[in-house]
Design goal:
The structure holds two protein chains of two kinds.
Chain A: H1 3-30, H2 45-55, H3 58-75, H4 79-100, H5 108-131, H6 139-166
Chain B: H1 3-10, H2 17-37, E1 46-51, E2 54-60, E3 68-72, E4 76-81, E5 84-90, H3 96-99, E6 110-112, E7 117-122, H4 124-132
Antiparallel strand pairs in B: 1-2, 1-7, 3-4, 4-5, 6-7
Classes of the chains: A mainly alpha, B alpha+beta.
């Protein structure tokens, strides 16, 4: 494939993944929370970030993530939720990039867990800045939930990637 | 094949999956144990209510005999009972703070994120915890 074809393909796939992430994000916001504690959620949109990271590149995954966070808070959030989404997303992405260097593709679920924990840590830091240090009392609850949801979303991403491999979609450099 | 795979092959550090599972299992059980067993000491329980980090109310829950409601700003009301406190109503969109129910220990606070309200309980155990950390 020539250069411009590749670029177009990359643009379309980025747009498609962003759309999928956004839909997951908006749908998830409509589902009543499983546990009545702020900050606990499935994090389904992170499946797409993980898939983008492995299917394309880290840079493309960052683009998908940032677009999803910005568009997500326009479609589904309030003004403050952008700050939480953004800080969580950045932390999550940075940690996932770092741990994916030492973990194999088969251990993607663990990458997702570390990401989920980092996501909550980022959100708690912003909450602590805005509301005071006592929100750190949520840390054990959030740590517990993020390990569980991280395993789930990570396994979803792994399953998806194995399907993608079967239909030979590959968009890396 | 892919840059990702060659990246992994080049890498010398290998972390066994069993180690990862053991690590996460340990984290989960420590958190669960902390939440399960730390259900309040016998010390005096004082509910502290803050808005935007500023203390607006301080109630000795041990001396409460009959439940009653109090207003927190114009946005929330709390229900105070003997040794426990819950959010009774809130005008936030999700109402998670109300659904959380009553708390009776200093471990987990009730936070109403949209309204910046925190209800926490101070007891002897949590003061010791603060002193250590």
């Amino acid at each position: 494939m020539n250069g411009s074809g590749k670029r177009i393909r990359r643009l379309t796939v980025t747009a498609m993944l962003t759309a999928v992430a956004l839909v997951l994000f908006v749908i998830e916001a409509q589902i009543p929370p499983l546990v009545a504690i702020p900050g606990i959620k499935m994090g389904l949109a992170n499946i797409v970030t993980l898939v983008a990271m492995k299917l394309m590149s880290k840079k493309d995954a960052a683009v998908v993530l940032l677009l999803r966070v910005v568009l997500g808070s326009i479609f589904a959030g309030q003004a403050v939720s952008f700050l939480y989404s953004f800080s969580g997303g950045i932390m999550c992405f940075a940690v996932m990039c770092a741990v994916s260097l030492i973990l194999s593709d088969k251990q993607l679920w663990a990458v997702s867990v570390f990401g989920a924990v980092a996501h909550n840590a980022g959100q708690l830091s912003v909450a602590a800045l805005m509301l005071g240090k006592y929100v750190w009392g949520y840390a054990p609850v959030l740590l517990l939930s993020s390990v569980v949801t991280g395993v789930f979303t990570g396994l979803c991403a792994q399953l998806l990637l194995s399907r993608f491999k079967k239909i030979r979609v590959y968009l890396g450099d | 094949m892919s840059s990702q795979e060659s990246e992994n092959k080049k890498n010398k550090i290998k972390i066994p999956t069993a180690a990862l599972i053991a690590f996460f299992a340990a984290v989960v059980s420590i958190c669960a144990a902390l939440l399960f067993f730390a259900d309040g000491g016998d010390g005096q329980k004082i509910a502290v209510i803050t808005i935007d980090g500023e203390e607006v109310e301080r109630i000795d829950l041990g001396s409460v005999t009959e439940g009653y409601c109090i207003d927190i700003g114009d946005s929330n009301t709390a229900f105070v009972e003997h040794d426990k406190i819950s959010m009774h109503s809130a005008n936030c969109p999700d109402g998670l703070c109300v659904k959380q129910g009553a708390i009776s220990s200093g471990l987990v606070p009730i936070v109403c994120l949209p309204n910046h309200v925190i209800i926490r309980i101070e007891d002897e155990t949590s003061e010791q915890f603060d002193a250590v950390t």
